[in-house]
Amino acid sequence: MQLSCSAMLRWIPVFSLLTALLLPLWNTAANAESLEKAAPGSKEAKVITFAYFPMAVPVVVLGETLKRDIILQKALKQEGVTIAFKTFAKGNDVLRLIIKDQIDAVMFADFPSIEAVITGDMLIVGMVKRSFSSVVAPLGTRVEQLRKMRVGNAHGSTSHYALLQALGSVGLSEKVITLVPLEVNQMADALASGTIDAFAAWEPTPTAAVKKYPGRFASIYRHISNSYLLVSVSLADEHPAAADALTAAVARSVRWMKTGGNLDIASGWALTAMTDFTGNPPSLSVADIAAITRNDLLDVSGAPLLSAVEVDKHTLLLKKFEFLKKVGKIPAEATSVKLRSSFMDDLLPRLMKNPAQYQLNTFEYAQ
């Protein structure tokens, strides 16, 4: 039906009145929506992104346990915060996101921890692993026999540093071997097929290789390597209670795994996560994962507290810092000041002094 000109003219005042009444409401709704979008740091909008690596033990054990921590979820909810767990295969993938300020917490080995602190804004809170990077070779091989051999390795990594330490211990240098760039999950099979003559890697790759090919390979050199819990400066500054809750959850999970058969339960979760991540069951068993976790975390005195050695000016981290500059992983002009100031060595001790407040001995995990 078409309206005549006179009818349309009669409707104009009505439309004007409706517009006058509704426009403020529309503007109010639009402003509220824009405020919501403009305040991603507010409690209502904050989502903590927690990164970890399913193929790293005991990091995966801790990650899978934290995912199920109901006490952590309740504590974060009280702060208007939720947590998203994201899994990665490589440290470099996480480092790229850290530079963009898209990661709020991560469990990292020592070398990527240094990179995260220097190239991003991350703080070192606690220790979540103390183990070894190993050089693996055919049974009976000695380090001095690596001369002219093809050695699988990840450039600029913890295991690269371990390999250089191994060579230096017998008066050799990197120049006398051929480095073969490989992903850690390729190393065992490459060694078995003869593509390489040895490899250097962090756990659980050495243990998995020896188990997968029994009687063929052995670790011929080991170098100590730590992994750490890191949180972003923005999380610590803007949501300190959330940073406390997350750190408390790590300490709580360590205590939980030390009681009853809980370590086996957590190791089972880890095995499932490893299988889901790769699409194939790993060569490690639940018992293997539990043994590595016990040796590298639960039996480490004081863990997850940082030791005085780690924050001392002569710490191994500072030597590794210089190595990373040398291989171009961090800027040559970087100084150690930022690394030294990144240790939040007072956070965990503060929580440990208040176990009831932070529910360090109360356990509630979703099955």
Explain this structure to me?
There is one protein chain. Helix 6 (158-169) links the parallel strand 5 and strand 6. The protein has an 8-stranded mixed beta sheet with strand order 2-1-3-8-4-7-5-6, sandwiched between helices. With 367 residues, it is of the alpha/beta class. It has helices spanning 5-38, 59-67, 70-78, 91-99, 110-119, 158-169, 184-193, 205-212, 233-238, 240-257, 262-278, 286-298, 308-311, 316-326, 337-340, 347-352, and strands spanning 47-52, 82-87, 105-109, 122-138, 150-153, 178-181, 198-202, 217-232. The radius of gyration is 26 Å and the shape is globular. It folds into 2 domains: 47-130 and 226-352, D-Maltodextrin-Binding Protein, domain 2 (3-Layer(aba) Sandwich); 133-225, Periplasmic binding protein-like II (D-Maltodextrin-Binding Protein, domain 2, 3-Layer(aba) Sandwich).
Distance between the termini: 64 Å
Radius of gyration (Å) = 26 Å
User: How helical, in percent, are the residues?
Assistant: 40-55%
Which regions are unreliable across 5 or more consecutive residues at pLDDT < 50? 1-43
**CATH architectural type of the largest domain:** 3-Layer(aba) Sandwich
Brief characterization of the structure:
By secondary structure, the chain is an alpha/beta fold. It has helices at residues 5-38, 59-67, 70-78, 91-99, 110-119, 158-169, 184-193, 205-212, 233-238, 240-257, 262-278, 286-298, 308-311, 316-326, 337-340, 347-352, and strands spanning 47-52, 82-87, 105-109, 122-138, 150-153, 178-181, 198-202, 217-232.
